[in-house]
TrEMBL record:
InterPro entries given in the database record: Bact_solute-bd_prot1, SBP
Pfam families with a match to the protein in the record: SBP_bac_8
Gene3D superfamilies tied to this protein: Periplasmic binding protein-like II
Lineage: superkingdom: Bacteria
Subcellular location: Periplasm
Lineage: Bacteria, Pseudomonadati, Pseudomonadota, Gammaproteobacteria, Lysobacterales
Protein family membership: Belongs to the bacterial solute-binding protein 1 family.
PANTHER family membership: ARABINOSE-BINDING PROTEIN-RELATED, BLR3389 PROTEIN
Protein name: ABC transporter substrate-binding protein
Amino acid sequence: MRRRVPAIVATAAAGALLLGGCSGGGGGAQESDNTLTLWHFEGANSAMGVAWDEAIRVFEEETGATVEFEERSFEQIRSTASQVLNSDEAPDILEYNKGNATAGLLASQGLLSPITDAVEEYGWADKLAPSLQTTARYSEDGVMGSGDWYGVPNYGEYVMVYYNKDAFEEAGVEVPTTLDEFEAVLQTFADEGTTPLAEAALEYPLGQLWYQFALSQADRQFVNDYQLYENEVDWQGEALTYATEKVQEYVDKGFISEDITGLKAEDAGVSFINGDAPMFYSGSWWYGRFADEIDGFEWGTFLFPESDLTLGSAGNMWVVPANSGDPELAYEFIDITMRPEIQALLGNNGGLPVAAEVADITDEKSQELIEGFNTVNERDGLAFYPDWPTPTFYDALVAELQELVNGTKSSDEVLTSLGEEYDDYAADFRE
């Protein structure tokens, strides 16, 4: 869901820019080479990219094996994973998105190896809080929360409001603690001729804002119904109607631009980095990059006001394809990424480690990020992501919200379309 650049190229396949076109990559082709073919999509200056860089170095030093890292973007992996992992082009290990529609789907299709035995052997479960294990385990039907382990998350993530402290001071506004105060801040910037929220509707950001609006009117049972299919979801009910109408309201009031239908997540993030927009609602995966690249103003974060529930979960996770040529090497690499020193490196570069020693986190910005995550966890606030319930819901949500922003569909029409898409898939799990 977000564009990435390579963090390291150990022996990258030349010109391998598309999943279907990687050369000599994975699976059985590497069985006797003492080589681990690895894909991940973290930027070189992101917290995860820095940590995985070091993990690769340690792995090669300790095992004598060679890592072949190949560049893959999140979108490339998401859109063609089923095809590639069902071929001899599969890597030995890769970072993959968690949730029913992604890791759960591949697990149910037999494309990922169940790794429960490795989890027990290496003791990884002891390092992960129960709430972070939910997205690592899947039933035979691919529903998260029970069954075998199919991946190991080694960082957390959550969504928050990034804000430009200098812009706030110049506008005479303060960090809001209520939704009314938040919208008053938005209105202040809009009145000055500034579009206050950096947004993008060609990719995930707008869908996440939409879901946050719904969460602000919902409770844990709504999340369980929406994500785990415990009960039917009312697509014309209060929470989802409120969310859809709020998106339209924010466009009408100039809080977000009508031009976002042509913008990707990268465009929105760069808009905040450049100081063009004073706020950006997105995830902790941007934190390390902002710390590295923003030098023209002071910035901070706050949780979405008046909502106990927040988008977030354990982070993306290491998975081992069923066609992996050397799963034992893959397990060794996973174990290195769970070491305290690698976790501390992640934490001190703007990430959210799941197995770090607290005393090892010395960076002030990182401490701020971790405090926010702890606040969400303490209130059992992690509510996952809006596109998780079905394999095609990400594309459906992006398309429908574009229609809403363009004015080609009403709120009711958007919810009807989304409800039909959702129910066609979710109904099978309630029978």
